């Protein structure tokens, strides 16, 4: 049996990749080491958050699945930074860990062109540097035109607790023992990374009276743009906030040498996530802080496990118990699962191209944690793009490449392939230079057309989207063409909402530039029968017009540099005067444009000038 696309791994990257390629009518096989573990949420029971929430909207706009499944399995949802500017707003949902995988597995099982097989892939079939299929642990050979590797934290993974190192995957799952060594034999540079997870405790043993309740928003919120999954916003599960204290910090300091990361194990070379540090790291690195936040988050409506957000550790079990019991409200908490760190193999992502295909082996794609990222959303968006791009390659079409000004997904992939990783990469708003353009509210406006063109958005949804664009235009026209004159009624109203009176006539469009004025204020004078999302879009575009125009000008400059292409055949050793470090980095990354070359760390403006002169001279260099 031969498949067009084989996806290895049923995590968040694998699910999106398999759905995208099968929905694009390519015969797809998803091979995963444990079918019951598909779409498992190995760590935090939440999806979204700052920047990550925007990625989920982007996945949804392109026709991916994560947003819909999150909406159907959320037990609490809120909009972060709703009082701040639109550039930093994002949704964050607590997810039911039982329900999310259940819905995702059902979706995969009902998908035509998609088969699922349980098995451990340990090698690849490669002929003339083109992948031709996979070899399973039990020596079964399965052929395909493309392979997408999404193996997460399972490659030669070791679970670390105190001074013990045990070769196994997350939650005692089987690790993949040979795949990374076989990738190394082909020529891939393998890096070792690590991450960690906190303990889970029994809800019934927590004294919530000593904590602060954290509720969801009492309004309807969805990641999905069209489905508007209905739920009772009153029926949400609360989270709780408590803090670490001097007693906990003392226990950490006294026992630091027992943590795997701080001496418990001598042979650790891997690097943990800088932006998701263990409690040991936080106490040591931020020694001036006398407390750190600890969120108590429910994992499911169906069981009592509470996830202790902020207490990731690799301390031995007895120290973990002391740490937990030192926290207010958790004095008598029963630990149901102990925390651990996990070390695993990944590939350095400078070895992949913008379409997520590897540079070394044609038709071999990688996505998710194997590329050095951390997080469900980061994994899912790469899986979606790998699934789309492997399909487009089979169709003989150009790949879908998202630029840094088009999507956080574009920022993430560009960062990975240009900068590589030294510690697990996590998306942050600060990584995006055009974040006012990459907003939660306009993900569909940025990406739905592309999702439609690649074939993942139905005609029905696309026509709804066209309708939305039309209405935005209509409302803008109305606001531009409706003038308010300084009548007594209007000025009285303006005074009542603390706005200055009018001296001359003004269009509603211009009046909206005043921070205190909202479109809803005009409803007193004119009928505006538009949905809230249309009003929100128009309001943001008018109020932030100046900043948006400035960002667009910066984008134009960036795109000009992206248009200056560097030929594939360039031999950097022939460019004299380039600094050694620059030559090395340029040879490793092989940027396709001057814009990309500029973003490589270690390549300085002087090197770029030399490179540009060399490119300008062209054949005359010979
Ligand atoms: C202990 C721990 C702590 C974490 N902490 C955080 C955190 O603090 N913050 C955060 O954002 N994220 C965290 N994560 C990361 C998050 O779980 C991952 O980033 C995300 O799940 C990665 O998705 P993925 O699809 O790449 O891989 P995974 O979700 O890991 O899925 C990989 C899949 O591949 C399968 N598989 C692996 N190898 C093979 C093979 N050779 N053949 C067949 N099947 C295979 C596995 O069974 C699994 O289904 C943590 C993960 C772990 C395990």
Total domain modules: 3
Structural class by helix and strand composition: alpha+beta
- For the terminal residues, how far apart are their CA atoms? 51 Å
CATH architecture of the largest domain: 3-Layer(bba) Sandwich
Give the ligands present.
Answer: flavin-adenine dinucleotide
SS field, number of helical segments = 20
Q: How much of the sequence is in beta strands?
A: 15-25%
| Strand segment count | 22
Question: So, the CATH homologous superfamily of the largest domain?
Answer: FAD/NAD(P)-binding domain
Computed CA radius of gyration, to the nearest angstrom: 26 Å
The average pLDDT value, as a whole number, equals 94
Within the CATH hierarchy, at the fold level, what is the topology of the largest domain? FAD/NAD(P)-binding domain
Model regions low in confidence, pLDDT < 50 over at least 5 residues: none
What can be said about the biggest beta sheet? 7 strands, mixed
Helix share bin:
25-40%
Write a structural description:
The chain starts with a strand and ends in a 5-residue tail after the last helix. It contains 20 helices and 22 strands. The relative contact order is 0.12. Helix 12 packs across helix 16. It folds into 3 domains: about 1-455, 3-Layer(bba) Sandwich (FAD/NAD(P)-binding domain); about 460-550, Orthogonal Bundle (Arc Repressor Mutant, subunit A); about 565-620, Orthogonal Bundle (DNA polymerase, domain 1), CATH 1.10.150. Strand 8 (about 130-135) and strand 9 form a beta hairpin. Strands 1, 2, 6, 7, 8, 9 and 20 form a 7-stranded mixed beta sheet that branches. The protein is globular and about 80 Å long. The chain is α+β, with helices and mostly antiparallel strands. Flavin-adenine dinucleotide binds near residues 13, 196, 197 and 375.
